[in-house]
Amino acid sequence: MLLKDILATKGTTILSIEPSATMAEAVDKMVAHRCGCLVVTKGESMVGIISERDVLRAIAGVSKTLDKIAVEERMTKDIITGTPDQNINDTMGLMTANRIRHLPVFDNGRLCGLVSIGDVVKAEHQKLAMENHLLMSYIQS
Asked: CATH number for the domain including 33?
């Protein structure tokens, strides 16, 4: 299974926020959409990603409130990305090795989707469940 298969099922909606927005706005948007991260965009370009983990780091040891901290101050700038033709096993390894939970997917330099570790686990589970079902059917026949 490939990332494009996950995106075909999940969809390609990408929630984003401007770098000049506040961390409070980012939290409000993540809560409203029940998501764990937002892609930070400037115009049409992705310049970072802001996740729940980044929010926690913004709170820890800082005397400013979230409405006084800009997203661009706390966003992750060195972004690891995937491609639509990347297989799930490689993706799991990449996400695990880099301790990331969200992977922007780029196709020919264009952001075309966002895959979470939950999406990858769900797809792998469905694949294994189908294989198990087929093997059980074969054994029983």
From this structure: 3.10.580.10
Helices vs. strands in the chain: H and E counts, helices first: 6, 5
Which SS3 state, helix, strand or coil, does residue 133 take? helix
The range of the structural domain enclosing residue 51 comes to 3-140
Q: Decide if 69 contacts 58 (C-beta within 8 A).
A: yes
Spell out where the chain has E strands.
16-17, 37-42, 45-51, 102-107, 110-116
How would you classify residue 92: left for phi > 0, otherwise alpha for psi between -120 and 50, otherwise beta? alpha
- β-partners of residue 48 are 40
The DSSP-derived string for 55-66 is HHHHHTT--S-G
pLDDT, one tens digit per residue, over 47-89 is 999 999 999 998 997 888 999 999 999 999 999 999 999 999 9
- How far apart are alpha carbons 13 and 116 in whole angstroms? 13
Cα→Cα distances 32→26, 35, 60, 67, 73, Å = 10, 8, 23, 17, 22
